[in-house]
Every structure is written in structure tokens, then in C-alpha cells.
Automatic annotation (TrEMBL):
Signal peptide range: 1-20
Xref: PROSITE patterns: JACALIN_LECTIN (PS51752)
Name of this chain's protein: Sphingomyelinase
Higher taxonomy: Eukaryota, Fungi, Dikarya, Ascomycota, Pezizomycotina
GO molecular function, one term: sphingomyelin phosphodiesterase activity
Keyword Signal: yes
Recorded name of the encoding gene: spmT
Alphabetical keyword list: Signal
UniProt feature coiled coil, ranges: none
GO biological process, alphabetically ordered: phosphatidylinositol dephosphorylation
Gene source species: Lachnellula hyalina
Gene3D superfamilies, per the entry: Endonuclease/exonuclease/phosphatase (3.60.10.10), Jacalin-like lectin domain (2.100.10.30)
Length: 436
């Protein structure tokens, strides 16, 4: 009996690990923390701003949201971080006039963090050009091989004509960035858009029309319909049916489905001990569930975040099989390519180095790849690749280093595509898997 119970316990443990690798959930919080120096703007929030910032950090720790994006995190950044305990946090880019005020606190690690300044700003209604506002980008690692591209933004404020022109340009800038840097990827975008659906010139629908993103509030609280009548929220808001300028957008991908399951203004959780507000914005939370595809998976990324993003996932046909593997390399890995039995070919990188190829047999599959990385011109690149097939045959290119890792497709799966960043060489690389 004890042996049977032990076997059942082990089976249950294995099943739980399998489930954890293929599905899960996480929640996010978006909060403009009103961190401008009090001498510049008191935000109509009572109390001492440093004390309020410390309270905000304490509540971040208490409620333990998985990925928190903050805006206007300027003069009191250290006070928030002093009382927060999230494992992963961005370093401040500086106070007002120097930094963007955008930061992230997370239970998950990330790669490829980038800060981008707005190309257009307006001082028609305030001092938006005083500080380099913009947006941030990062690929958050939810589980092994499970990434979601996260964006945090703070758009131009005000309702004058120049403000709306600048704000529309801001949102368009993010939408264009998504089209370039999040090809084929799941996306969660949130922050202070300073926009409302009832102001058509803002262009807030660009994320829906251009990037196929869903507004979580519209979906979960407004019947899936963009509002045509202006509604304003109290602060703190006790209802979810009003619209704020703080918004959350998301989409899934062929490799990862995302579903928004819960939306709430967290206002009643973020109050001072006397019941006063901590910020002039209502914080927003959204819960998501995720599930990996049963036909396409990916490995983790390896190398450096340089060059141009590429992702083959949208072009992979159903029931793919790799027929030819081709690499180019010499001192470093210059190019990777493969051809599927359907005739589709994927090629990434440059034309340098020596080309080498391996043609697979009809019952042979590409099942693992070793990559080695190193430094070149102060940037991390992939220097070496070793492909191994299901029959033990290999293909090598580039020069091995002491910093290597091996990616192996799950049992019954094969490598059928690539994603990563390239230029004249392969800077960053991951592999796309499909069953065989």
C-alpha cells in the first residue's frame, strides 16, 4: 500500500509539473503613483508624498501583484522600493526632468529591457516636454520557454489640439514598435494613456486596429464595445463601469493563448491609514490565464538583445518537418537557415562565413541544438551552433566558447523554426518546436 501511495504521489507531482509548464496565470497592476516633486505638483493628494510612496511600496508587497507597471515614479522612487519586496525591479532612469518615471516591479525575470522616448510631445496644457516621457519594453519569462512582451507607457496629457496630436503620435509610435519588435509574440501593454475612447483624435483604437490587441476593460466591463459616451471615475472608484485613462491591452499568439479573466479598480486597497487617496489615479489590476499551444512551442532566448527582431512562427505551416538545415559561420555564427518539407525556407543573419548544410532523411528530425555565446564589440552574440538530429547526425558552424547551453525539443517534438535578433550575424536566438 505504501508503495502504491508513493507511486501515486510521484505521478501527481509529475503531472503538476507538466501542467505548470503548459498553463498558468498571473496578475498585473498599473498605477500612476503621482511621484512628481511636491514643489512642482501636489496632484491634489493629501499627506506627505514620501510617506505616501512608502505606503504604496508596502501595499505592493502586501498584495504581491505579479507584474506592476508604475508611471510618474520620479522623486519618491527610493521610498517605494524601500518597502517593496518584488524579486525583479527596474533601476530608475532619474527624477523629473531626467527620467521617464516608468518602472516595473515583478515576480518574474525578463530579458531585452528597453526605454524609448516619445518622438513628439506638447506643452500646450502643461510641461510634458520637461521630462523624457515615453514607454518601456521587456520580454517577461513566465515559465521555461514562455515569454510575453510587456509594454509600459505614459502618453502626453492635456486636451488642447497640440496635446491630442502629440498623444496620437505617442500611441502610434508604440503601435509601430509592436509591429517591429513583437512580431509573432503575445503582448500585454498597459499604463497611463491619457486617452479616452470619446476623444477620437487621441487614436486609442490604434492598438485594436493595428496590433490586434484587446482592451481588458472593454472586454470584461463594457460588453466588448468601445464606449461612445464619456464616463468619469471617482477616486477611489467603487465601480468598474467607468472609464479611466489608465488602460490595459493584450493579445495572445500562435504559441501562447492569453485570456483576461478579471478586471478591477484597486482603489480601496491603496489608501492612506486615514482613508485618503495615495494618488490622483485609480490603480488597475487584470488577471490573465495562459496556455501553451499543443502544436508550437519555443525555447528560451540565448545571446544578446541586438539587431532586428525576427520570428518564423507566423509562417510555419501545419504539420511541419525540417528537411534541410543550413548554417554559415567562421569566427562567429553568421547565419542560420532551414527548409521545411513544404518548401518554406527561413534564413536569418548575414552572408559572411562558410556555408554548411545537412539534408535530413524522411524519418529523421532535428531534435537539439547547442549554442555558445561570447562578446564581440562589447555586445553578446552567438558564436557557435551544433545541431543534432534524432539519428545522432550533427551539423556545426562557428567557433565554440566556454559559455554554452543546449536546447532539446520535448520528446516527440522537433525544431522547425527560429526567433531572435540578427544583423550581419546572429545576436540572439531561440528555437521553435513542433510535434512529429
Amino acid at each position: 500500500m505504501s508503495s502504491l501511495l508513493l507511486n501515486l504521489a510521484v505521478a501527481s507531482l509529475v503531472a503538476s509539473f507538466t501542467a505548470a509548464a503548459s498553463n498558468g496565470d498571473f496578475n498585473i497592476l498599473s498605477f500612476n503613483v503621482a511621484g512628481l516633486p511636491s514643489i512642482l505638483n501636489d496632484n491634489d493628494v493629501p499627506g506627505d508624498k514620501a510617506t505616501n510612496a512608502g505606503t504604496i511600496g508596502t501595499l505592493f508587497t502586501k498584495y504581491d501583484y505579479d507584474v506592476i507597471h508604475v508611471q510618474e515614479d520620479f522623486a519618491y522612487h527610493a521610498d517605494i522600493y524601500a518597502t517593496d519586496d518584488h524579486a525583479y525591479r527596474t533601476a530608475t532612469s532619474g527624477t523629473a526632468g531626467v527620467g521617464s518615471g516608468l518602472n516595473t516591479l515583478s515576480n518574474f525575470d525578463w530579458v531585452d529591457f528597453t526605454r524609448v522616448k516619445w518622438a513628439t510631445c506638447s506643452d500646450a496644457s502643461g510641461d510634458d516636454c520637461l521630462t523624457p516621457k515615453g514607454f518601456t519594453f521587456m520580454r517577461v519569462l513566465l515559465s521555461e520557454g514562455v515569454y510575453v512582451d510587456f509594454y509600459n507607457l505614459h502618453a502626453d496629457a492635456g486636451t488642447e489640439a497640440d496635446d491630442e496630436t502629440a498623444r496620437a503620435a505617442n500611441l502610434q509610435q508604440v503601435a509601430d514598435y509592436i509591429d517591429t519588435w513583437s512580431i509573432g509574440n503575445s503582448v500585454v501593454l498597459y499604463g497611463d494613456t491619457n486617452s479616452r475612447y470619446t476623444r477620437a483624435l487621441d487614436g486609442i483604437t490604434v492598438f485594436e486596429t493595428q496590433n490586434s490587441l484587446t482592451d481588458a476593460w472593454v472586454e470584461l466591463e463594457n460588453g466588448g464595445v468601445n464606449p461612445t459616451v464619456l464616463t468619469l471615475c471617482d477616486n477611489p472608484s467603487l465601480i468598474n463601469t467607468c472609464e479611466t485613462v489608465d488602460k490595459v491591452f493584450y493579445r495572445g499568439s500562435k504559441q501562447l493563448s492569453l485570456t483576461g479573466t478579471y478586471f478591477n479598480y484597486e482603489s480601496s486597497k491603496f489608501l492612506q491609514s486615514n482613508g485618503s487617496i495615495l494618488s490622483d489615479h485609480n490603480p488597475i489590476t487584470v488577471n490573465f490565464t495562459w496556455t501553451t499551444s499543443d502544436s508550437l512551442l519555443q525555447s528560451e532566448l540565448y545571446g544578446g538583445p541586438h539587431g532586428t527582431w525576427f520570428n518564423d512562427i507566423e509562417s510555419i505551416p501545419s504539420s511541419p518537418k525540417t528537411s534541410v538545415i543550413t548554417f554559415r559561420g567562421a569566427s562567429r555564427l553568421d547565419s542560420v537557415a532551414l527548409t521545411l518539407t513544404s518548401g518554406t525556407t527561413f534564413t536569418h543573419g548575414g552572408t559572411g562565413g562558410t556555408s554548411t548544410s545537412l539534408t535530413l532523411e524522411s524519418s529523421e528530425y532535428w531534435t537539439s541544438a547547442q549554442l555558445c555565446q561570447g562578446q564581440y564589440n562589447s555586445e553578446t552574440r552567438n558564436f557557435y551552433i551544433l545541431a543534432t538530429t534524432s539519428t545522432g547526425r550533427t551539423l556545426v558552424s562557428g567557433t565554440a566558447t566556454s559559455d554554452c547551453t543546449t536546447f532539446t525539443a520535448p520528446t516527440g517534438w522537433q525544431i522547425v523554426g527560429y526567433m531572435g535578433q540578427d544583423g550581419d550575424e546572429i545576436d540572439q536566438l531561440a528555437f521553435i518546436y513542433a510535434p512529429y
